Amino acid sequence: MVNYLRKGKILQDKPLNFIMEKTVVLSCQYPGNFRKEASILIEANRFKGVEEHKRMCNNKKVIKELFKIAHVLLKGEPSLYQKITELMASYLNQASEDTLKYLVSNCEAVEKCYEQFMIIMFQLRTKDSQKNLSKIILRLVTVINLNDPDEKTKAFLSCSILSLLLDKNLIDNRDYANTKIKGFNDSWDQSELSNSPLTWEKYTELNAIFTSNYSTDESIRFGLMVMSTFINVERFRSKEYWHWMRTKSEGIRNNEKWTNNTRESAGTVLHKMDIIENN
What we know:
By secondary structure, the chain is an all-alpha fold. The chain folds into 2 domains: 1-143; 145-279. The protein contains 16 helices and no strands. The chain has helices spanning 2-6, 13-29, 34-46, 50-56, 60-76, 78-93, 97-106, 109-124, 127-140, 152-167, 174-187, 200-211, 217-228, 231-234, 239-253, 260-278. The protein is elongated, with a radius of gyration of 21 Å. The protein starts with a helix and ends with a helix.
Protein backbone atom coordinates (compact mmCIF):
# COMPACT_ATOMS: atom_id res chain seq x y z
CA MET A 1 0.00 0.00 0.00
CA VAL A 2 2.82 2.41 0.83
CA ASN A 3 4.47 1.70 -2.52
CA TYR A 4 1.14 2.15 -4.28
CA LEU A 5 0.74 5.61 -2.81
CA ARG A 6 4.35 6.57 -3.41
CA LYS A 7 3.91 5.91 -7.13
CA GLY A 8 1.33 8.68 -7.23
CA LYS A 9 -1.73 6.49 -7.59
CA ILE A 10 -4.86 8.47 -6.79
CA LEU A 11 -7.48 7.16 -4.41
CA GLN A 12 -10.80 8.75 -3.58
CA ASP A 13 -11.24 10.36 -0.18
CA LYS A 14 -13.40 7.60 1.28
CA PRO A 15 -10.91 4.81 0.48
CA LEU A 16 -8.11 6.95 1.89
CA ASN A 17 -10.09 7.50 5.06
CA PHE A 18 -10.75 3.77 5.27
CA ILE A 19 -7.04 3.02 4.83
CA MET A 20 -6.05 5.36 7.64
CA GLU A 21 -8.69 4.07 10.05
CA LYS A 22 -7.91 0.44 9.22
CA THR A 23 -4.22 1.13 9.73
CA VAL A 24 -5.03 2.48 13.18
CA VAL A 25 -7.02 -0.65 14.05
CA LEU A 26 -4.16 -2.89 12.90
CA SER A 27 -1.63 -0.86 14.87
CA CYS A 28 -3.59 -1.66 18.02
CA GLN A 29 -3.63 -5.37 17.16
CA TYR A 30 -0.02 -5.58 15.96
CA PRO A 31 2.00 -2.95 17.86
CA GLY A 32 5.29 -4.29 16.51
CA ASN A 33 4.65 -2.76 13.08
CA PHE A 34 4.51 0.91 14.05
CA ARG A 35 7.09 1.88 11.43
CA LYS A 36 5.04 0.49 8.53
CA GLU A 37 1.83 1.89 9.96
CA ALA A 38 3.37 5.33 10.32
CA SER A 39 4.56 5.23 6.71
CA ILE A 40 1.06 4.34 5.49
CA LEU A 41 -0.54 7.16 7.47
CA ILE A 42 2.00 9.70 6.23
CA GLU A 43 1.73 8.67 2.58
CA ALA A 44 -2.06 8.42 2.64
CA ASN A 45 -2.35 11.91 4.05
CA ARG A 46 -0.45 13.36 1.09
CA PHE A 47 -3.31 12.48 -1.25
CA LYS A 48 -6.18 13.77 0.84
CA GLY A 49 -8.41 16.52 -0.45
CA VAL A 50 -9.01 19.68 1.56
CA GLU A 51 -12.41 18.62 2.88
CA GLU A 52 -11.26 15.14 3.79
CA HIS A 53 -8.27 16.60 5.60
CA LYS A 54 -10.61 18.78 7.64
CA ARG A 55 -12.70 15.75 8.57
CA MET A 56 -9.60 13.82 9.58
CA CYS A 57 -8.67 16.67 11.93
CA ASN A 58 -11.50 15.51 14.19
CA ASN A 59 -11.07 11.77 13.72
CA LYS A 60 -10.35 10.97 17.35
CA LYS A 61 -9.47 7.35 16.67
CA VAL A 62 -6.73 8.22 14.20
CA ILE A 63 -5.27 11.14 16.15
CA LYS A 64 -5.25 9.14 19.39
CA GLU A 65 -3.25 6.42 17.66
CA LEU A 66 -0.85 8.98 16.18
CA PHE A 67 0.11 10.01 19.71
CA LYS A 68 0.83 6.38 20.54
CA ILE A 69 2.83 5.79 17.34
CA ALA A 70 4.87 8.95 17.87
CA HIS A 71 5.74 7.85 21.39
CA VAL A 72 7.14 4.55 20.09
CA LEU A 73 9.03 6.06 17.15
CA LEU A 74 10.77 8.83 19.10
CA LYS A 75 14.08 7.13 19.86
CA GLY A 76 14.20 4.45 17.20
CA GLU A 77 13.01 6.38 14.13
CA PRO A 78 13.68 10.12 14.63
CA SER A 79 13.08 11.10 10.99
CA LEU A 80 9.79 9.20 10.87
CA TYR A 81 8.87 10.65 14.27
CA GLN A 82 9.38 14.14 12.87
CA LYS A 83 6.99 13.43 9.99
CA ILE A 84 4.38 11.95 12.30
CA THR A 85 4.47 14.94 14.66
CA GLU A 86 4.24 17.26 11.66
CA LEU A 87 1.11 15.38 10.60
CA MET A 88 -0.28 15.58 14.14
CA ALA A 89 0.37 19.32 14.31
CA SER A 90 -1.46 19.87 11.01
CA TYR A 91 -4.49 17.93 12.28
CA LEU A 92 -4.62 19.64 15.67
CA ASN A 93 -4.32 23.04 14.05
CA GLN A 94 -7.87 22.60 12.73
CA ALA A 95 -9.22 20.25 15.39
CA SER A 96 -12.37 21.25 17.26
CA GLU A 97 -12.45 22.08 20.96
CA ASP A 98 -14.29 18.82 21.58
CA THR A 99 -11.52 16.81 19.91
CA LEU A 100 -8.81 18.64 21.84
CA LYS A 101 -10.61 18.04 25.14
CA TYR A 102 -10.94 14.37 24.28
CA LEU A 103 -7.19 14.08 23.66
CA VAL A 104 -6.33 15.89 26.89
CA SER A 105 -8.79 13.94 29.05
CA ASN A 106 -8.70 10.45 27.55
CA CYS A 107 -5.41 9.98 25.72
CA GLU A 108 -2.76 11.36 28.11
CA ALA A 109 -1.80 13.66 25.25
CA VAL A 110 -0.21 16.29 27.50
CA GLU A 111 1.72 13.69 29.47
CA LYS A 112 3.05 12.12 26.27
CA CYS A 113 4.05 15.53 24.90
CA TYR A 114 5.93 16.35 28.09
CA GLU A 115 7.87 13.09 28.08
CA GLN A 116 8.71 13.42 24.39
CA PHE A 117 9.66 17.06 24.77
CA MET A 118 12.13 16.30 27.56
CA ILE A 119 13.80 13.61 25.45
CA ILE A 120 14.00 15.85 22.39
CA MET A 121 15.15 18.88 24.35
CA PHE A 122 17.97 17.28 26.30
CA GLN A 123 18.91 14.14 24.35
CA LEU A 124 18.04 14.26 20.66
CA ARG A 125 18.09 18.06 20.25
CA THR A 126 16.21 18.05 16.92
CA LYS A 127 14.74 21.50 16.34
CA ASP A 128 12.15 20.46 13.75
CA SER A 129 10.60 17.99 16.17
CA GLN A 130 10.70 20.59 18.93
CA LYS A 131 8.80 23.00 16.68
CA ASN A 132 6.19 20.36 15.86
CA LEU A 133 5.68 19.52 19.52
CA SER A 134 5.42 23.21 20.39
CA LYS A 135 2.54 23.56 17.91
CA ILE A 136 0.84 20.49 19.38
CA ILE A 137 1.08 21.59 23.00
CA LEU A 138 -0.06 25.12 22.14
CA ARG A 139 -3.26 23.67 20.73
CA LEU A 140 -3.82 21.30 23.66
CA VAL A 141 -3.24 23.96 26.29
CA THR A 142 -6.12 26.01 24.90
CA VAL A 143 -8.59 23.58 26.48
CA ILE A 144 -6.79 23.04 29.81
CA ASN A 145 -8.20 25.01 32.70
CA LEU A 146 -5.08 26.07 34.59
CA ASN A 147 -7.23 27.05 37.57
CA ASP A 148 -9.01 23.71 37.92
CA PRO A 149 -7.62 21.52 40.75
CA ASP A 150 -8.70 18.40 38.85
CA GLU A 151 -6.42 19.38 35.97
CA LYS A 152 -3.45 20.33 38.15
CA THR A 153 -1.06 17.74 36.72
CA LYS A 154 -1.87 18.60 33.12
CA ALA A 155 -1.59 22.32 33.87
CA PHE A 156 1.75 21.77 35.61
CA LEU A 157 3.19 19.77 32.71
CA SER A 158 1.86 22.27 30.19
CA CYS A 159 3.53 25.16 31.99
CA SER A 160 6.78 23.19 32.16
CA ILE A 161 6.74 22.78 28.40
CA LEU A 162 5.70 26.39 27.76
CA SER A 163 8.47 27.67 30.05
CA LEU A 164 11.08 25.68 28.16
CA LEU A 165 9.66 26.78 24.82
CA LEU A 166 10.02 30.38 25.93
CA ASP A 167 13.50 29.91 27.30
CA LYS A 168 14.67 28.06 24.18
CA ASN A 169 13.01 30.71 21.98
CA LEU A 170 11.09 27.99 20.14
CA ILE A 171 7.67 29.58 20.26
CA ASP A 172 6.27 32.32 18.05
CA ASN A 173 3.41 33.51 20.24
CA ARG A 174 5.44 34.26 23.34
CA ASP A 175 2.80 36.55 24.82
CA TYR A 176 0.19 33.79 24.76
CA ALA A 177 2.53 31.29 26.42
CA ASN A 178 3.55 33.85 29.02
CA THR A 179 -0.09 34.61 29.81
CA LYS A 180 -0.86 30.93 30.34
CA ILE A 181 2.08 30.51 32.72
CA LYS A 182 1.09 33.67 34.59
CA GLY A 183 -2.37 32.23 35.08
CA PHE A 184 -0.84 29.18 36.73
CA ASN A 185 1.57 31.23 38.84
CA ASP A 186 -1.20 33.51 40.11
CA SER A 187 -3.64 30.69 40.83
CA TRP A 188 -1.47 28.11 42.56
CA ASP A 189 0.29 28.35 45.86
CA GLN A 190 3.59 26.57 46.45
CA SER A 191 1.98 24.57 49.24
CA GLU A 192 -0.47 23.03 46.76
CA LEU A 193 2.32 21.21 44.92
CA SER A 194 3.63 17.91 46.28
CA ASN A 195 7.13 17.67 47.73
CA SER A 196 9.53 15.44 45.83
CA PRO A 197 13.27 14.78 45.37
CA LEU A 198 15.15 16.83 42.80
CA THR A 199 16.09 14.51 39.93
CA TRP A 200 18.83 15.19 37.41
CA GLU A 201 16.20 15.62 34.70
CA LYS A 202 14.29 18.21 36.69
CA TYR A 203 17.53 19.96 37.67
CA THR A 204 18.47 20.18 33.98
CA GLU A 205 15.04 21.54 33.11
CA LEU A 206 15.09 24.20 35.84
CA ASN A 207 18.67 25.20 35.15
CA ALA A 208 17.72 25.79 31.52
CA ILE A 209 14.91 28.08 32.66
CA PHE A 210 17.07 30.01 35.12
CA THR A 211 20.05 30.54 32.79
CA SER A 212 18.40 31.30 29.45
CA ASN A 213 18.67 34.74 27.87
CA TYR A 214 15.07 34.30 26.70
CA SER A 215 13.60 33.71 30.16
CA THR A 216 10.58 35.76 31.18
CA ASP A 217 9.46 36.80 34.64
CA GLU A 218 6.65 34.26 34.49
CA SER A 219 8.86 31.34 33.44
CA ILE A 220 11.29 32.23 36.24
CA ARG A 221 8.44 32.46 38.76
CA PHE A 222 7.19 29.08 37.60
CA GLY A 223 10.67 27.60 37.97
CA LEU A 224 10.93 28.96 41.51
CA MET A 225 7.56 27.46 42.39
CA VAL A 226 8.74 24.09 41.12
CA MET A 227 12.03 24.46 43.00
CA SER A 228 10.17 25.01 46.26
CA THR A 229 8.77 21.47 46.07
CA PHE A 230 12.27 20.03 46.49
CA ILE A 231 13.31 21.97 49.61
CA ASN A 232 11.94 19.63 52.28
CA VAL A 233 13.59 16.62 50.65
CA GLU A 234 16.92 18.02 49.48
CA ARG A 235 17.90 19.56 52.84
CA PHE A 236 18.79 16.09 54.07
CA ARG A 237 19.72 14.43 50.79
CA SER A 238 22.05 16.45 48.56
CA LYS A 239 24.36 19.31 49.57
CA GLU A 240 25.10 20.03 45.91
CA TYR A 241 21.46 20.52 44.96
CA TRP A 242 20.81 22.50 48.15
CA HIS A 243 23.67 24.88 47.35
CA TRP A 244 22.46 25.20 43.75
CA MET A 245 18.93 26.08 44.87
CA ARG A 246 20.18 28.75 47.27
CA THR A 247 22.62 30.25 44.75
CA LYS A 248 20.02 30.47 41.98
CA SER A 249 17.38 31.92 44.29
CA GLU A 250 19.77 34.54 45.66
CA GLY A 251 20.82 35.51 42.15
CA ILE A 252 17.23 36.03 41.06
CA ARG A 253 16.26 37.91 44.23
CA ASN A 254 19.19 40.31 43.82
CA ASN A 255 18.79 40.86 40.08
CA GLU A 256 16.92 44.10 39.45
CA LYS A 257 16.03 43.15 35.89
CA TRP A 258 13.27 40.91 37.30
CA THR A 259 9.98 42.33 38.55
CA ASN A 260 9.14 42.62 42.23
CA ASN A 261 6.85 39.59 41.99
CA THR A 262 9.65 37.43 40.64
CA ARG A 263 12.17 38.63 43.20
CA GLU A 264 9.64 38.10 45.98
CA SER A 265 9.11 34.53 44.76
CA ALA A 266 12.85 33.96 45.06
CA GLY A 267 12.76 35.49 48.53
CA THR A 268 9.98 33.09 49.51
CA VAL A 269 12.11 30.12 48.45
CA LEU A 270 15.07 31.44 50.46
CA HIS A 271 12.89 32.07 53.51
CA LYS A 272 11.63 28.51 53.37
CA MET A 273 15.20 27.23 53.13
CA ASP A 274 16.25 29.39 56.11
CA ILE A 275 13.45 27.99 58.27
CA ILE A 276 14.47 24.41 57.52
CA GLU A 277 18.16 25.14 58.12
CA ASN A 278 17.45 26.75 61.49
CA ASN A 279 15.23 23.95 62.80
